Amino acid sequence: MESARPASATDSPGYSAAKEGLAHRFRPAGVLDVTGEDRVGFLQGQLTQEMRGLAPGETRETAGLTPKGKLLFVARALGLPDRIRLLLPQSLRTPVFEHLRKYAVFTRVAIEDRSDEFLRLGLYGPGSAAWAAPESVVRLPAHGEFSAELLVPAAMRAAVEAALEAAGSEPVSEEAAEILRIEAARPRFGSDMDSANLPDEVGLAGAISTTKGCYVGQEVVARLRTYGRVNKRLVRFRFAERAIPAGTALRRPDDEAPARIEAGRVTSSAVSPALGPIGLGFAFRDVADGDRLVSAEDARDSAVVSDLDPA
Question: Which pLDDT score is estimated for 125?
Answer without folding.
Answer: 97
